[in-house]
Structure prediction request, 145 residues.
Amino acid sequence: MKTLIVYYSNSGNTKKAAEALAVELGAELAEIREDRPRKGLSGFLRSGFEAATKKATRIRPLGAKPEDFERTIVASPVWAGHLSSPVRAFLCDQGTHIAEFGVLLTHAAPSAKNDYPTVVAEAEKLIGKKSVFTRSVVGPFSMKK
Ligand SMILES: Cc1cc2nc3c(=O)[nH]c(=O)nc-3n(C[C@H](O)[C@H](O)[C@H](O)COP(=O)(O)O)c2cc1C
Prediction:
């Protein structure tokens, strides 16, 4: 199945998880980029605030089109128990062009009891589609310096 993995990663965990999944599924990768960096404590606080208030930030145009793929998997870090704002922005912009939909999350809290189904539900609600592929990966907590 022709699959696109669209990821946002600030400190590298989601990038690694997305790259590993791309190898596993034979998928193409596209990175969501922003003009404004998220560094240090101010970047951390802004990220948490944007996620908690469900803000969609300004992102650069993506290098791939979801309409060219049978399945699009979005990969996002969990921020403050929510979807990251850059991934929210991508889904708001491009969600209607997604055929089959999947979600890959990375987060720092151990996943045994908490793999953030609420965050998957946020993504599903944004585009009005159920995720047919859901995975969550626990990574180290890191803040970009
Ligand atoms: C602003 C912010 C909020 C976070 N909130 C959570 C959280 O609610 N739950 C959690 O398990 N991890 C949380 N984390 C940890 C990240 O989800 C985790 O480190 C993720 O893998 C980072 O992905 P990245 O390296 O691709 O940016 C948070 C990290 C940041 C920067």
In short: The domain at 3-138 is CATH 3.40.50.360 (Rossmann fold). The radius of gyration is 14 Å.
